[in-house]
Amino acid sequence: xxxxxxxxxxxxxxxxxxxxxxxxxxxxxxxxxxxxxxxxxxxxxxxxxxxxxxxxxxxxxxxxxxxxxxxxxxxxxxxxxxxxxxxxxxxxxxxxxxxxxxxxxxxxxxxxxxxxxxxxxxxxxxxxxxxxxxxxxxxxxxxxxxxxxxxxxxxxxxxxxxxxxxxxxxxxxxxxxxxxxxxxxxxxxxxxxxxxxxxxxxxxxxxxxxxxxxxxxxxxxxxxxxxxxxxxxxxxxxxxxxxxxxxxxxxxxxxxxxxxxxxxxxxxxxxxxxxxxxxxxxxxxxxxxxxxxxxxxxxxxxxxxxxxxxxxxxxxxxxxxxxxxxxxxxxxxxxxxxxxxxxxxxxxxxxxxxxxxxxxxxxxxxxxxxxxxxxxxxxxxxxxxxxxxxxxxxxxxxxxxxxxxxxxxxxxxxxxxxxxxxxxxxxxxxxxxxxxxxxxxxxxxxxxxxxxxxxxxxxxxxxxxxxxxxxxxxxxxxxxxxxxxxxxxxxxxxxxxxxxxxxxxxxxxxxxxxxxxxxxxxxxxxxxxxxxxxxxxxxxxxxxxxxxxxxxxxxxxxxxxxxxxxxxxxxxxxxxxxxxxxxxxxxxxxxxxxxxxxxxxxxxxxxxxxxxxxxxxxxxxxxxxxxxxxxxxxxxxxxxxxxxxxxxxxxxxxxxxxxxxxxxxxxxxxxxxxxxxxxxxxxxxxxxxxxxxxxxxxxxxxxxxxxxxxxxxxxxxxxxxxxxxxxxxxxxxxxxxxxxxxxxxxxxxxxxxxxxxxxxxxxxxxxx
Length: 768
Prior knowledge:
Layout: H1 26-32, H2 48-59, H3 72-88, E1 102-103, H4 108-111, H5 115-118, H6 132-139, H7 147-168, H8 182-185, E2 187-188, H9 198-201, H10 214-220, E3 225-226, H11 239-349, H12 369-397, H13 415-433, H14 446-459, H15 461-466, H16 469-484, H17 502-507, H18 526-545, H19 552-568, H20 578-597, H21 606-609, H22 615-635, H23 643-664, H24 670-682, H25 686-689, H26 701-718, H27 723-742, H28 746-755, H29 761-766
Antiparallel strand pairs: 2-3
Helix pairs in contact: 11-12, 11-13, 16-18, 18-20, 22-23, 22-24, 24-27, 26-27, 26-28, 27-28
Main location: nucleus
GO cellular component, one term: U2-type post-mRNA release spliceosomal complex
GO molecular function, one term: DNA binding
């Protein structure tokens, strides 16, 4: 709060001049600001003398020095000025509690000495908030240091406000006698905010000048402008002028009407477009609603279908595993019986066992002799009975003359085994028929499921494609197809072709509507994908656990099935396909296991083999021809397996390892040539069609050397014999040359022809 002590007397200035009350020193102004007070003029009825006295007392407020005691007239003038400021609304009231003075000393330290004496004489003023004009002044750059400019602006504002109030009250504005030089009389004071002169508003020809102290006048002189008396002359009104104005107004109204009409047409067109858009959207919303409803129904159907499959698929897997296990047990039983028969006959005709080193109750293999002899007798009786039945069947069909022991497959089963197999098979089929007995047809029938997705495809193909249904259908149909293929085994003669089954016929034309096919449509490859994911894995299991490579019938059927898949479904059944690689790997493993576990070639002295009716001879011949049959079965896979793999299995693993051993242990003569012809007949002709030079494939070198040795042996045996035997020996040598030429071993054929003076070499080669 600021303190100001009013002086007792002060010289009076001219009426209308407004000064500050309670002027502060420079330090107080910079810290706290100035306090304003506006003075309202006296009423019109007061006499000029009284107005002059009041003005003199009022103007004396500006010259009160600090420390002076104001008199009664000064206090009355201050109260009057405050009253007028309150009425004008530009004054903040101070606290007026009883017992307190109205004046607050500026300097508290100066008032501390005579605090009790001056208490009653003080006038208290409060520091009010800054007025709007002060705030504007601060914004336009008048800082607290420009006190005089701010005070001058406030004085001009109060003067202007006071003059306008007097005009509103209808008071005649008195003439102001200038006391300043003549050059100042023609200007009026203009504050920061230029206000309109009341003289110009009412057409008064005289002007006002700003009055005040000499310092204030010097500061205001730069901001004043000359006041010009407005002209009261008016343009004369004529008919042409009126017509022109009316015409201008009419033209303006026409332009406005035209603009309004254009705006109206624009709004009318916008309304029509909006109406059409609403109708179009309402029409299209019906299709969207149907689409949403359909997709929601499909969503619920697919969820129910997956929930059903999540419960039924484990049952289908169990039934499929049970069926595979049943077939595997039967195949393993037949293989085990063949291995036992070979062991029994080998043990029976073995002549090199050392019985002295064995316990009296054990045989050469360490088995209990009594129990083993009983088992051997039972197996021998069963084996001979099966051979007799096969021999009888060949006699009835007239194939007895061409048959060789060892070429037939001993796959006959006992009645007990057949009965047990059929009972278990029927049980599994009965269980499979109960898998979906508690399910609606629409959730297990392939036709019903297919129709649901066909409707989706035909109605909303875009969403059908976005949902990748074409990629999901093979997996969706997988358990249903495997259930139908439960008893499917292509190794059996009565096995039905899978392309004639119901599931294949139902899905054959799926996605093949009359409309134009879409590029990259996954439904086109539905059946090939099912073959890849269902048929190939099933064939892999059959090849690994059920197929018997010794069986020519089973091998032929298996080769035919795989070749059919290669020819009919080349997009999936190829070397790059994972399931195809697994199938070929299973085939190779089964062939190697057969080569290691089931092939056996006995070795007997030649004097034992001279008796062609003896047991060792028959056993030897049977094992030889079974090996040749296995060689032929291996080479049936030509075109499916690589040549390198086939040559490794058939030539290195079987011919050079077992069959050549039998050749060397056989009689050299016509029988050996017949066996050699049978072996060469198994080789694919494509192996030798594109060979260049005189040499055959490297794996057959040992076999070729055996043929050369066979020709030399036949020639040596014919020396000293009759001419008939010599001619027969010569014919045998020519046959050997033909055999060598048939496998493109021309170097060995030329050697044999030169050694034995065979002149028909070219004829033999061309007639190979």
